[in-house]
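ok so I'm stuck.
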Amino acid sequence: KGKGSLLDDPLYPLLICQFSNGSWEHGADYQNQPDVQGMSAANQAGTYLYHPDAGNPGGVLNWNSIASDPSGQFSGQLFTSKNINAVKVTVTFPHVFLHGQISGNSPAKLTATIYYRDPNYPSAGDTPLASAEFSFAGYGENKNGSDPKGWVRDSGTSGSGLRGGINIYNTILSCDTTLPQNGGIYAAYTWGGKPGSNAIIYSGATLVIESQNTTVQYGQTVQCERIFPDVSQKDLLKDTLQRFGIVCQTDNTNRTISFNSLRDIVNNIPVAKDWSGKCVDQGKQIVFRLGNYAQVNYMKYKEDDNVLPKDFANSQINIADTTLPASSDLFESQFAPTLNRPYIIGNIAQIKMIDNTSNSNDFTIGVSPRILIDQKSGLQGKTVTLSDGTKQVVINDSISTPYFYKTEGQYSLCFCDMTGTGGTILPGLNTKYYPEFKMILTQAKKVTRYFLLAPRDILELDLLIPVYLQQDNAYYYINKIDSWRKGQPCKVELVKLG
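replied:
not stuck anymore, here's the structure
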């Protein structure tokens, strides 16, 4: 579990990520998961169908052998989805024999259809999704029966009373659809033509329903990996810690991680622990330089060709030490800054992904990932319609109008200070979270000493609490404790606070 000043920062919970992919898809793990929402069944006994009269033209097909139904959604006839699920439905008939009248105005015909049953509107009737027809149409007479595509005449029939039979092989009907919760799928047959026809659906016919886990459907959960940029969890965490100037401390006993700033450590100076008496006179090492910092340390966002000027959100930390290198990048965020555009209720972040000079609405412009501040805005009597291309949702109360920086905004994600309302200064991340860090770098001093620390010192160690050394008349934060052993001096690396 996490704790600390980062989680208490009012800006932190407002951060949202722009959808970082060109298609609205599930993550790789979701796509490749075992299909526990689908099913497959077969009819291994075969089915004999008879068309007795015009008032009894058809029925529902039965499947007596269920090969797979991990979620228990199939009754033998009807598949009822327990969750929102995009599916591909396939019905396969390896061999069907049709017998009946061939000539005249009403030749024999058998139609197989996949139907959808809407749980919200059962009285509206079921919707046909795909059909396949078994008939004599397009087949020529084959008197010796050797051609499987030809029909065979019944002996003694001709003219308007011509009857016969035909073998039809490998008929497949399929469709793609999205099932809501409790949405139903089944396969049925319907007779056409004069009564007296019959058919045999030989064993081996199958009904297969496969989940299509690629595209996110309305109402499904979106995986974080499809929103965040294509970076490791470590790099994403690092980006967040750098944005707020955070240092981490783990507590294995309580299984917590503290996310705190250097300001928290400085504010704890009044409760600093005095380690003066624990210091062992075994010499000390002093370094007046920390890390690989330079005279000018740039805090950057990732560049994006659609955001100009390229460095409008960047900042820098200057160190007045000519012995340091001239400049270096302190860090570069995984995200790019974002400009605004006018909207019906003010300004909103603009992420341009469609080429306005073309007639296409497809995403054709590649952009760097973005991070924004979520802001809810009332619509003031207006309405906004959100659509995924199929379903629409009309909103008339409030919507999110995210931004990266805007003059009237309460916060800013720019590293540098920007202009606020009425010409005021809207502090950037550098000003808000890095003054203590800048002070430490400007008066850099890293001291390595040996201390005789008791087991209680280690047990109660809190890296957020500074230590005081009377020998130096200074406060330090603990950067590293090296190889502690009971009853033996250990090397401790300290960084001077200011």
